[in-house]
Amino acid sequence: MYPRWLWPLSALPGVVWLLVLFLLPFYAVVCVAFGSVDPILLTAQPAWNPSQWNAGWVNHVLQLLAPGNIYWDVFIRTCEYVILSLAGCIVVGYPVAYYIARHASRTKSLLLILLVLPFWISYLMRMLAWINLLSPGGYGLRFLSDTGISSLLYHAGVISDPSNYLGGESFTVILALIYGYIPYFILPLYASLDRIDRSHLEAARDLGASPFRAFWHVTLPLSKTGLLGGAVLITLPMFGDYYTPNIVSGAPSTSMIGNQIDLYFHGGPQPTIGAAITILLSAFLMILMGYYMWTIHRASREVPV
Amino acid sequence: MHPKERRFGATRREFLARSGGAALSLSTISGILAACSNSTTAGTAGTGAGGWPLGPGGIPLARPSHPVKMKRWEAPIPSGMQPETGGTFTIFNYPAYIDPAVIKAFGKKYGVTVKVTPFDDITTGVTKLASGTISPDVTEMTPDLLSRVVAGKLVKPLNLDYIPNLKNVWSGFQSPYYDVESRYGVPYTVYSTGIAYRTDQVKEDIPNLKPNPWDIFWHAQKYTGKTALLSEVRETIAMALLHRGITDLNTEKASLVNRAVKDLQELYSICNVKVGDLQYETIPENKAWLNQAWSGDMMAGYFYYLPNKQTGKVLRFWNPGYGKGPIGNDMWCVCSTSKKPVLAHLFLNYMLDNGVGYKNFVDFNGYQPPLNEIQPETLVSKGVIPQNLASCVLTESDFGPKALQEMTLTTAGQSLWQDGYATFQSGA
Questions:
Q1: Of the segments A109-118, B22-31, B351-360, B362-371, which one has the largest average pLDDT value?
Q2: Which chain A positions have a beta carbon within 8 Å of B287's beta carbon?
Q3: I want to staple B156 with a disulfide (CB 3.0 to 4.6 A). Which of A147, B169, B199, B334 is the partner?
Q4: Coil, helix or strand for B24?
Q5: How does B60-85 read in b/e, with b if 16+ C-beta sit within 10 Å?
Q6: pLDDT tens digits along A173-195
Q7: Are residues B394 and B343 in the same domain?
Q8: If you write DSSP's letter for every residue of A128-177 in order, what string do you get?
Q9: What is the pLDDT of residues A122-175, one digit of tens each?
Q10: Domain of A100, in residue numbers
């Protein structure tokens, strides 16, 4: 018999970790957003006491987030990029995860190793590699030209210059986001698909369901939590991403909301605006997170014990 | 249900209803926010004698027409002291902006280990210095930020007895208008801002473009995706001001800055303009063809990033010339955190040595020190730089009283420029 306090105690390191490395820094960002700026050095002066909060900066950013204002445009662009990247991850990642979970038997371990292989190289380095691949004379650019993909994308209006993917193309930014984040999407999805009891599928087939109907009515619903988990895992960092568009594009026409945060935090007299955008973006992401938690909780209640 | 078991689950309808409630409650946030104070000023600006605007700490804004002699906030170190030895000597600087061989030789000469702590850009550097998380001995600095770091007591007043090599620099830099008597800093490099381009790709005769060579960016449809501006708040907007023929690069008139931003926004549709600071690499490597650039970029590009010799012949830098385009300089200051203030002074002196300055320039940096010994003709005749890049080399006359230098703004002015740049950067 274990003492009653043992299991709650085991959560202590995690709680301390969360407090020290998430809640405290997040509170600091909130205090910066509601704080002031040193008049000489222009550094942020957080207002630690909520009774002294100054809402001017947050109100200012809220106004600029209204339709037609600058943050609205960049926010909508960010949402478009994230949604399209997520769609790309699902289209590419689901079949991969499905194959590894359901059909790869002897090669499963090898494929899983290959999946985590990108983690051995830093995200930044992987993005920088694209610069060389897509530069004039780069293998990636040559491949896209030789296979006719560039021509196809150009005639479909997806890219404006088939010989210059690095010239500020939205397509390149979305492609880079998919490339950079897809391993984080596939792994939780694989875990979810791998856990599905094969007897459910067999039952569906025994009852006359076609392979597609069995997938649609059994596999897909049962992998919903994995899909959502993977989606949350990649969309949250994508919303704050600024270095991917910086590296593979550099054009203001492809900048994301993270670039605005970076700009204001990077120096100058208004770090408070950077903090205000950060907390408003977090508030928006909490709504998405809330939906995910609600779905997960409902799914866990529906699982028969 | 156990009383301790909270019901989290909800139907889709309930979830949507709650989300709607949350959305509605957002409107009440503004009510809550209204209860807080509502200020968006980062500092107060005032005026000094004769109505001249004051900058950080009440120090007047320095302009060539209004030289500023800053008060020493503490006494400089006494003369005649021996340099500190042993331990680490820390230089706070841009990455790859000083020759490792030069600093190694300095360390060897004075028996210290020299370490470079890099910053991304100077404004971030000042923020780091102000945070107190680092304690370097010397720091790179720019004139527009000098009064700020002096007012914040982040740099020490100098004792020029330790810096006799100051005589080697152009006379205008021995007592510059932004720091009369060189009380806080000595010059490091000089540069101008112009246009870097490749003649094998850009066919226009940019230096002779009428009415204004800066207009090339607004006629750059042919160079879509290969055109870029510097990712610098001041430089980018200043370029758009110059495009309109406005030479007051320190203006705080909202109408001028906002119109410059609108002009910059036109570049999205004209050439899908990019922003970045890698022109010293992208132009030689043919990744970019037309770029706003600093003069030192093309020299660094010529020295280190040429894929082949032929490319060196097609590189060009349009230097707007005296009073027609931005010029600037970087400096060295002694940090108030320095544990080796005597050695820090000697480092400043070392960097102004003719031999050291020249070596740092041609062997590594590409940015020119304002040393009397370095003459454009000599550099070209010696073959250090090719004739086609002679325009990258500056002379003392480029820094005369009518030179255009982006200098300190009031806090409100800085916010105006930063918001303008953010609008341009948003791609809106």
A1: B351-360
A2: 135-136, 166
A3: B334
A4: helix
A5: bbbbbeeebebeebeebbeeeeebbe
A6: 999 999 999 999 999 999 999 99
A7: yes
A8: HHHHHHHSTT-HHHHHHHHTTHHHHHHHTTS-S-TT-TTTT-HHHHHHHH
A9: 888 999 998 889 988 889 999 999 999 999 999 999 999 898 999 999 999 999
A10: 69-266
Shared domain check, B420 and B287: yes
Q: Does B418 touch chain A (CB under 8 A)?
A: yes
Q: What is the pLDDT of residues B197-206, one digit of tens each?
A: 999 999 999 9
Instruction: Check whether B4 has a pLDDT greater than 60.
Output: no
What's the angle, vertex CA A275, arms to CA B152 and CA A255, rounded to 5?
Answer: 110
> Domain range spanning residue B313?
191-326+409-425
Residues 14-43 of B with CB under 8 A from A: 15, 19, 22, 30, 33-40, 42-43
Same domain, yes or no: B238 and B338 = no
Residues B210, B177, single domain; the answer is no
**Using an 8 Å Cβ cutoff, are B141 and B330 in contact?**
yes
Same domain, B219 and B177: no
How far is B268 from A73, CA to CA, in rounded Å? Answer: 14
* CA distances (Å), origin B65, targets A68, B148, B406: 42, 20, 14
As a whole number, mean pLDDT of residues B240-248 equals 96
pLDDT tens across B72-83, in order? 999 999 999 999
Pick left, alpha or beta for residue B108 (phi over 0 → left; psi -120 to 50 → alpha; otherwise beta).
alpha
Q: At what angle are helices B122-131 and B143-151 packed, to 10 degrees?
A: 10
Examine the domain organization and report whether B287 and B417 are in the same domain.
Answer: yes
Examine residue A98 and state whether it is found in any structural domain, yes or no. yes
Q: Is B224 on the interface with A (CB under 8 A)?
A: yes
- Summarised one tens digit per residue, pLDDT across range B35-53 is 556 666 655 557 777 778 8
Any idea what the CATH number is for the domain that residue A130 is in?
1.10.3720.10
Is the same domain home to B217 and B318? Answer: yes
Can you give the length of chain B in residues?
Answer: 428
Number of residue pairs across A and B with CB atoms under 8 Å? 174
Contacts of B276 in chain A (CB under 8 A): 246, 250
B87 at interface of A, judged by CB pairs closer than 8 A? no
In a domain, A47, yes or no: no
Whether B195 and B177 map to the same domain: the answer is no
Tell me if A161 sits within 8 A of A167, measured CB to CB: yes
Q: What is the structure's pLDDT at A73? A: 93
Q: Is the pLDDT of residue B154 over 60?
A: yes
Average of pLDDT values for B18-42?
49
Pair type for strands B326-334 and B315-318 = unpaired
pLDDT band per the 50, 70, 90 thresholds, residue B24: very low
Q: At B204, which CATH number?
A: 3.40.190.10
CB distance from B247 to chain A under 8 Å? no
Of residues B36, B42, B422, nearest to A42 (C-beta): B42
